[in-house]
């Protein structure tokens, strides 16, 4: 029987690096992205074209995007919050623009410093321009499973923003659990509705592990028919403008789990672990990854005490 294909999209270099206090040198960013390009990802989110005042960690976006070695099998995407960001991204030959706004008014105001309607207006203008080019358009809707400042966002509210973007002709929609508020039954219900409503669109699930539910949520999304996930190497990640935000679902934990469950992620776990092992040196601190600490399930150990007895 053919294995179920799951598309894995690496976001550590955007969602992860944006949140690091110490600037990661441009050459180091390029080196890790080049490594990740050989791991089998469907998509890599390289950086974001945001204001360097808002996200100083990614102020080298142009240089990174220009200097990486691109693998033709990988879609290279970048996060774009406004018109200026779209112009910068398009000048770098990206494969996709990942437009972003929040379904929560309060989070949109604090993250993007504008109302949701103003965001929509700008993003609609970008879609109008980019649609006539070969560049793909995705929209990431932050706080789709709850806002750390407003609380629950009604499912109809999330779907109505998705509807408005679908009508404009985007290729894909990502529902983001920006601060790990999602839980499995909620995830299943929202993605089932989304899948029924937008059968022709590429739908992506973007989870953070803030409350330890990211892998359970990923499973619930798969049950709802979702086959694309944003993941982050080492479990890095977090939005500087969402209180309490922490790491994304960890790439190696996700790949490890899905492959054990008989799914085909296309990603090479061994290469992934080698790349993840480089992260602490790069960012100067430990990463949340459990698989990096414990190793894969069948990495066997000598019996405890066997060394002592044999001496
Ligand atoms: N890239 C580079 N510079 C940008 C820019 C962009 N995409 N957008 C705005 N700027 C610059 C402007 O040129 C202006 O520069 P100046 O002060 O030298 O004149 C300055 O930023 C202010 O512009 P303004 O349009 O008033 O933006 P703002 O200060 O209201 O910020 C955003 C709006 C959206 C640009 C900013 O909030 C942002 O980048 N947010 C991203 C947050 C994020 O990435 N969060 C995590 C991921 S969800
Ligand atoms: Zn995120």
CATH architectural designation: Alpha-Beta Barrel
Enter the CATH topology name.
TIM Barrel
- How far apart are the termini? 50 Å
Judging from the principal axes of the Cα atoms, what is the shape? globular
Which small compounds were modeled alongside the protein? coenzyme A, zinc ion
Mean pLDDT: 96
List keywords for this structure.
311 residues, alpha/beta, TIM Barrel, eight-stranded parallel beta barrel, two-stranded parallel ribbon, 13 helices, 10 strands, binds coenzyme A, binds zinc ion
Structural commentary:
By secondary structure, the chain is of the alpha/beta class. The chain has a single domain, classed as TIM Barrel (Alpha-Beta Barrel). 41% of the residues lie in helices and 16% in strands. The chain contains 13 helices and 10 strands. It has helices at residues 12-16, 26-36, 61-67, 83-90, 105-112, 116-130, 155-168, 184-197, 214-223, 251-260, 269-283, 290-294, 306-310; strands at residues 4-5, 7-10, 43-48, 75-80, 96-102, 136-142, 172-177, 202-207, 228-231, 263-264. Strands 2-3-4-5-6-7-8-9 form an 8-stranded parallel barrel, surrounded by 7 helices. A two-stranded parallel ribbon has the order 1-10. Helix 8 packs parallel to helix 9. The protein is globular, with a radius of gyration of 19 Å. The mean pLDDT is 96. It binds coenzyme A and zinc ion (ZN). Zinc ion binds at residues 15, 176, 178, 206, 208, 237, 239, 248. Zinc ion is lined by residues 15, 176, 178, 206, 208, 237, 239, 248.
């Amino acid at each position: 029987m053919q294995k179920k294909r799951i598309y894995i999209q690496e976001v550590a270099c955007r969602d992860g690096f944006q949140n690091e206090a110490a600037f990661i040198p441009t050459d180091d960013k390029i080196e890790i992205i080049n490594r990740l390009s050989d791991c089998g990802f469907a998509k890599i989110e390289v950086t974001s074209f945001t204001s360097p005042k808002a996200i100083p960690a990614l102020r080298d976006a142009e240089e990174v995007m220009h200097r990486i070695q691109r693998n033709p099998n990988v879609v290279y995407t970048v996060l774009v919050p406004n018109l200026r960001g779209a112009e910068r991204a398009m000048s770098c030959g990206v494969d996709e623009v990942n437009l972003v706004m929040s379904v929560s008014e309060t989070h949109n105001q604090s993250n993007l410093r504008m109302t949701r309607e103003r965001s929509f207006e700008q993003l609609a203008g970008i879609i109008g321009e980019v649609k006539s080019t070969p560049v793909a358009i995705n929209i990431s809707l932050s706080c789709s499973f709850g806002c750390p400042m407003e609380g629950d966002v009604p499912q109809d509210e999330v779907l109505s923003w998705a509807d408005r973007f679908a009508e404009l002709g985007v290729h894909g929609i990502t529902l983001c659990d920006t601060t790990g508020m999602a839980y499995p039954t909620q995830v299943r219900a929202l993605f089932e509705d989304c899948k029924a409503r937008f059968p022709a669109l590429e739908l992506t699930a973007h989870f953070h592990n803030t409350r330890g539910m990211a892998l359970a949520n990923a499973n619930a999304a798969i049950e709802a028919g979702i086959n694309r996930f944003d993941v982050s190497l080492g479990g890095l990640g977090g939005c500087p403008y969402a209180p309490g935000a922490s790491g994304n679902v960890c790439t190696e934990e996700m790949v490890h789990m899905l492959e054990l469950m008989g799914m085909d992620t296309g990603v090479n776990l061994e290469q992934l672990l080698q790349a993840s092992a480089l992260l602490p040196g790069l960012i100067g601190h430990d990463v949340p990854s459990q698989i990096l600490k414990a190793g894969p399930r069948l990495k066997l150990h000598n019996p405890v005490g066997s060394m002592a007895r044999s001496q």
